[in-house]
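Researcher: Can you fold this with benzoic acid in place?
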Amino acid sequence: MSNQWNAALYDCQHAFVWHYGESLLEWLAPQAGEHILDLGCGTGHLTARIAASGAQVFGIDANPAMLATAQQTYPHLTFAIADARHFQPSNPVDAVFSNATLHWIPEPDAVIRCVYQALKPGGRFVAEFGGKGNIGAIATALFAELKHLGHLNCDTWNPWYFPTVSEYATQLEQQGLEVTRAVLFDRPTQLEDGDAGLRNWLRMFANGILAHVSAEEQMQVMQRVEECLKPVLYQAGNWTADYRRLRIVARKI
Ligand code: BEZ
């Protein structure tokens, strides 16, 4: 079952996702007149930041609700529904940018093939997403509690792809992209809404996993995950998610 998105909640309770992406724009360094594709643009806030540089940008996302919000918020920008594994812009672009999307797609080869085809020769791919060990404590507690309730095959419900630098760089190089910058780093991220922070996070980002079990079991799992993680991820009334990001820049040779 795939994750379901609530664009309004995503924007108000989880705005850190795109706020953190703002610093990735420094790696992109968009220039006026460039053509840039924002892959997995969500509600469009970073697409708008790229446009503010004077670049011609268009955003694509697989989720209609996110895209409708993006188009409503930024009616002057161009957005389209597309699957990251099967997209093709009408003309090659100078750069493909992607923030907090690629960890949802466990078929990196298909995505990278599209990125390669979308880029002009010399064009750049600038991306950030969850890297190896991302949400390690949260995922471990979540799957342990699901198993505890008897769902022994729940690992197969895991939708997330968190590669190491070398795994991802190898995929890029195998498809003709030269990696010029790569880093894996911890980004502990304080969640909104105090005590409810972890529960909100699970409802937003793990609802595709939780949908495999009954509503009653979902409540049980969330409660037990909170109990288990309280000593490590909760302090002074706030939850902190144990994010780890992989940032990468690669160039089409
Ligand atoms: C992340 O942004 O790292 C993330 C988002 C949803 C699920 C897991 C990780």
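Model: Folded with benzoic acid in place. Residues 5 and 204 are 7 Å apart (CA to CA).
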